[in-house]
Here is the input.
Amino acid sequence: MINDQVTVHLIFGALGQDGSYLAEQLSAEGNQVIGVIRNSSIIPNEYRHENINYVRGDILDTNFVYSLLETFRPTHIYNLASASSVSESYIFPELSLRINLEFVQELLNNLERYRTKSGQDIFLLQASSSEMYGPDQQSPINENTPHDPRSPYAEHKSMAHNLCFEARSNLAMKIGTAILFNHESPRRPLKFVSRKISHGAFAISQGREKKLVLGNINVQRDWGYAPDYVEAISLIAQSNLVDDFVLATGKLHSLEDMCRVAFKAAGLGDFSKYVDSDQSLYRTIENSGLVGVAEKAHLKLNWSHKVSFELMIEQMVNQESVDTPSSAPSM
Here is the structure.
């Protein structure tokens, strides 16, 4: 059992992009970290740090989740587990429903059950998504912008966000949400377009591939750097701020911009020689052009993004030559 005086941070999705960075940061600060991972997960060596205890199990097993609360008595929980691919949510809507919505409902039930039994509150940080706002929403987006979800993933994240709001309002549960705009890093799995571009540019520079095939490169997003956003997540939770926070850069860049930076970083110059656009890969509904306003995070957390779009993409390309995980788990 964990001593009551120890600050214990339990992370669902501890091997995903955000979870792995968060676990490292909390561990480096001397906190006790419990990283919940799948039974089948392989833990990369670079993810093993002092103060991180990885626990295997099925997060859809409510008895397993409740046992974590009783065994480790966490002071903070971070729900970073997600079936986070929008395109895959159309193919596997049931998986998105179970992980992105039903798990959140069960987690809230378990937290309330634990509070009733122990008399202890646990702060929950729920990771929400900019996908909740939909493609027709007027930018810029803040915490009060109405939701308009247009994909199974967006619908489930929106409903989970509202569940957290209701639990906070009606049951006085300690819940903060981080409304995350797109954020990237070398730890993105290859199925994500940012990593597909950085990996493709590097592979072409090495002569292993000749072309990179993408969809609509005119798509624009508000892209930030994952470790910057994880810093804000940590600030929300460790300050026990019961509130919602948009995390964004407030700047738009296109996939064309991303290609331009990536291929230059790979030493290839003009990306147009190597990139083909395939209309069959275009999305029918695309959240292009939405910009987030992180003013509340600036004011309450003294947070702002540090790493520029250009530096982020350059780092991703440079990291391709290093032995890093190429298909990090998404939860």
Notes: The chain has ten helices and 13 strands. The domain at 186-221+252-290+307-319 is CATH 3.90.25.10 (UDP-galactose 4-epimerase; domain 1).
